[in-house]
Amino acid sequence: MPNFEGGLTLNWEIDIWKKLKTEKQAAVAHYLSTVEGKNFVLSSLIAEVADNYYELLSLDNQLDIIHQYIGLQQKALEIAKIQKQAMAATELAVKKFEAELAKSNATEYYLKQQIIEKENQINALLGRYPQPIIRTKESFMTIVPQTVYTGTHLSY
User: First-to-last CA distance in the chain?
Assistant: First the structure.
């Protein structure tokens, strides 16, 4: 004859060491850490994009200055050539102005390369293909950031 048995086991635990309360607190802390972690990453990304954007504006300003400087050097080179023809200056002065002009042209190309690299960094942070970054051509020194209010701000 087959033997059929049945049983019931009951097990319970008293939370003397606050194990269940600690697990609940750990779950809440984990949830908050994921929310705060997301907010931290988002804030860091925004700060990085803003930092790169202002560096890009600074490079634009440097490029404008080097363009003005190149214009002045070209005029100075023309004057040095005229003075050489009039025997008021030597070939050394002309070569010096040519060298300075070549150095400024090299700086211009270097700044253009840095601008493209900075635009690519911003595009990578924004998760898009390389493309020009649209920006205003106003002077970098005249940009005034908007007022940031803390707490509650009531406007009438």
Answer: 92
3-state SS class at 142:
helix
pLDDT number for residue 55: 93
> Is 152 contained in some domain?
no
- CA gap 123, 115 in Å, rounded: 12
Burial of 82 (0-12, 13-18, 19+ CB in 10 A): exposed
Give a yes or no: residue 92 inside a domain: yes
Residue 116: inside a domain, yes or no? yes
> Considering only 26-40, 69-83, 100-114, which range has the smallest mean pLDDT?
26-40
Which residues neighbour 137 within 8 Å (Cβ) at sequence distance 6 or greater? 60
Question: What 3-state class would DSSP assign to 32?
Answer: helix
Rounded Cα distance between 153 and 104, Å, is 50
